[in-house]
Amino acid sequence: MDTTDPDIVFDQHGNCNHCTNALTKIELYKRDFSEKNQKLDTLVESIKSKGKGKQYDCIIGVSGGVDSTYVAYQVKKMGLRPLAVHLDNGWNSELAVSNIEKTLKNLDIELFTFVIDWEEFKDLQLSFLKASTPDSEVPTDHAIIAILYRLAAKFNIEYILNGVNVNSESIMPLKWGYGYFDKKYIENVHDLFGNVKLDTYPRMSLYKLFYYKFLKKIKFIPFLNYIDYNKEEAMKLIQNDLGWVYYGGKHYESIYTRFFQAYILPEKFNIDKRKSHYSSLIVSGQMSRENALIELAKEKYPPNLFQEDYEYVIKKFNLTEASFKEIMHLPTKTFLDYSTNYQLFERIKDLIKKFKLKVSL
Predict the structure, then answer these.
(1) CB-based contacts of 166, cutoff 8 Å, min separation 6
(2) Residue 343 φ/ψ, nearest 5 degrees
(3) Beta partners for residue 61, in sequence order
(4) What is the pLDDT of residues 27-69, one digit of tens each?
(5) Which listed residue, of 48, 140, 141, 248, carries a Cα 20 to 30 Å from 177's Cα?
(6) In this predicted model, what pLDDT tens digit does every residue of 172-219 receive, in sequence order?
(7) Which fold has domain 17-249+333-360?
């Protein structure tokens, strides 16, 4: 990590706040094998118990990527009965589709695919590009969360198991990607730059979040934190057992994500997300700093693939090359330039911390 993150702070030893915070997170999740296995066993038994008599006992999101595929592999191995959910936002690579099909067929897991309205979603993604913030993945991630909760409520399922984990995702600067839960931010950006009414786009309000979490008692579980998750070992396992194929980078199973992270972010915002991805692996002991620097020195985008994606993205957005370049040259901003629930979320976090402190006292 370096000063391409405007909020980074280094101590007298040259250690940054991100690594210090990440190490603290990882330490909190570290348990000896017996304790970790006990908590995992308790979780699995609870899922099975709450799911008795139901068609499914948990929901998992699938993208064709490493983390979600490994979650599917593990939950099936543990005897759970998941419903796999996939959001088709129009940007799936053929490899991602193939990985999902092979994984779920081999594991005998039923799939529900939500196909988003492309005209609505295209307008929303273009709105974020015109807003000129590095948050263009927010519309997809927000919709995924909304769909997972919606289906959990529909099937009366109390557990959503996801692939979020501290070992490979503990470092991400706030201004490199904000807003996955912030409906207000999404709607403000669209109100300012959009043209198509969002009639069917899945949204998650604070009211709905309260309803799902406290009335429906739905739990969003970072499942991979309950096991000793090693990304490289997981990749080898799903390749050997499921025929899964690597797609070249974190979240590159999506054509748009690949283009956004490997081209738009570094070219327009001077953000190379590989720095946060590799730093997360370094602090969890899964990658050396020396190897990370070697990987960072490699090209972000193979030239032939870049040209193919560049032409595809512009055409799919119905843009001309000139209009796309205009977007690329807009002054950069952050979520702080728009109406958001950020301050409200921070106050809620502070209240939760104080409440936990009072309970512990």
Answers:
(1) 22, 25, 26, 29, 222, 225, 284
(2) -65, -40
(3) 85
(4) 877 765 567 778 899 999 999 999 999 999 999 999 999 999 9
(5) 248
(6) 999 999 999 999 999 999 999 999 999 999 999 999 999 999 999 999
(7) Rossmann fold (3.40.50)
